[in-house]
Amino acid sequence: MQIELELLAPAKNKSIGIAAINCGADAVYIAGPKFGAREAAGNSISDIAELVEHAHKFGAKVYMVVNTILYEHELQQARETIVEAHRIGCDAIIVQDLAILGMELPPIELYASTQTNIRTPQQAAFLESLGFSRLILARELSLEQISAIREATTVPLESFIHGALCVSYSGQCYLSQKIAGRSANRGCCAQACRSNYTLVDSLGKEVKLPDGTPIAKESPILSLKDFNLSSHIPQLVRAGITSFKIEGRLKNESYIRNVVLLYRRKIDEFLTENHEYCRASYGRCTGGFTPNPAATFNRDYTTLFIDGERGNWRSRDGAKYLGEFVGNITGTGTNKYGQLHFTYKGSGGKVINNGDGLCFVTPQGDILGARANTCNGNMVATTEKLAVPAGSKLYRNYNILFEKEMEKNPPRRCIDVVLEMGATVDGYVVKGRTAEGVESIITVDGKGDIAHNPELALENIRKQLGKSSGIFNFTVGKITLEEIPFLPASQLNGIRRELASALEKEIVSVVDARRERDANSFVEKRKKIKKHPVQKKLTYLANCSNSLSRGLYASLGAEEIAPAYELQQENGAELMRTKYCIKYEFGLCPNYKYRWGNDRNYKDNLGKISFTEPLYLLNGKNRLQLKFDCANCEMLVIG
Questions:
Q1: At 617, which helix (H) or strand (E)?
Q2: What CA–CA distance (Å, rounded) separates 70 from 100?
Q3: What pLDDT is recorded for position 237?
Q4: Could you tell me where the beta strands, DSSP code E, fall in 247-355?
Q5: For residue 11, is pLDDT > 80?
Q6: Closest by alpha carbon to 237, among 495, 4, 545?
Q7: Distances 461 to 406, 420, 425, 475 between C-alpha atoms, Å
Q8: What is the largest CA-CA distance in the chain?
Q9: Backbone phi, then psi, for 191, in 5-degree steps?
Q10: Coil vs helix vs strand at 395
Q11: Which of these, 192, 241, 197, 232, lies nearest to 215 by C-alpha position?
């Protein structure tokens, strides 16, 4: 039996979810009206129902995220939301708060969100033992660590492969709550990690390079590049991943289409050469634009720790999307209205076009933006009043030609069907079978007149039945007719459309049966779960925000259960734990003798930079202490 590989895409709303399915996603994840970890990406139940209807035509799935921590007064509403998700046909619920395990729910699968902090075999085995039917792993894991989790568990594993990276382990970050009173675990992260900070020592002095340049002065020192594992699909499969997840429930439609089609083609390349695996939904994507991950939002790319090695993880010039690097500004000026015009020297053959969005990074580190209004070779005029010095870097953060190409040349997702036609006593029977094995049969009453020219009539039958209808691409196989009838094109087209409608209904029926089977299997498995032993002393700050989650841990034998940070917000608490380390980034780590830097070489920094620990990050009135857990090669941010 083939193993299914799933490409999982984010959906801010219904239309983006439909676009993701059309570009080849096997599943999408989307928030309902509340309780999604992206507060600005809520959706009505009716919209999600429409998305489910579209997805199920292709055998694709829809997962609703209910992945915030829940307060006591929200438990009933959260339960009702899940009941509604089941009613409209959602295939699973993605969960952070373990209180949901204690609710009386309809039969629907529950997936453990990455917010549950799955980064060790022990934590993964613990969550599986509670009854989750899928585990969504932390982004910071190496292939070796993923393999270890695979060995310790039996349920499917899901891994992020693309998109924004939180600097902290997911579900374990309280920086936004501390600084802005907005909890990431409640869906309203203020993205404090993308803010500018200055690095100082315990004496309040800026930490500087040997040449006197501050290491970090008003810069986004905690902001990471974006994830991109498009070159690691085979390795991830071998490590045990079967669901490949794209981050981005706040991203626009062009971003989703671009990234989904990129990974659809990468995964299809793997499937072509590895027949023991198959797609997790029906159909294939043909034609369309050529994906370009550099042309839509990103902070530059990293593979993070996937190969088990530290790398250059920090987003450099800014925490926002600068765009594709085009070249350097060679000369600037303004017209009589004070509007900027400039010349540039391109790199890599990139050319600015009218309507492109531009970003300039000055030698001083300032970031400025404009829109190209008139282009003549390497001379560009804008309508913005800006002062951009020569020597500035030029980026393009809106590629108008690429956006137009995506709009006018989308891929077509179709389901291949082989059609056969035979005779009955009173008419004809037509059977269609998809490449995935779904069949439907229709009968046609009444026989046509015998054709005077059988060869021409047979050619007409093949021509008309072999066209596309809706989402189906028909190919005519066997025609077993003793006498070839003359059938008008209108009748043949009607037969083809009727068969397409019957196949669509049959696919949805198969999807519904599969969902019911999987959900019932999940329910039966949870009934047989043996309680997993836990440590007698347990602190689980990310989840214990209500009586149900506290009760769960108490039932497992935990004697000490701390309330969620949002409910106590104690001073001196650990606000963030991260695999990213500022000491390593700037060549200050005593465990590494060589470091790469951004625009300068930090090879000889060790021992030449004077500072008194502990180190601090300053941002306005906020002063955050840094601690370094060198035994685990992690950095901590303390409130």
A1: strand 615-619
A2: 9
A3: 98
A4: 277-279, 284-286, 301-302, 324-334, 340-346
A5: yes
A6: 4
A7: 36, 11, 19, 12
A8: 100
A9: 55, 50
A10: strand
A11: 197
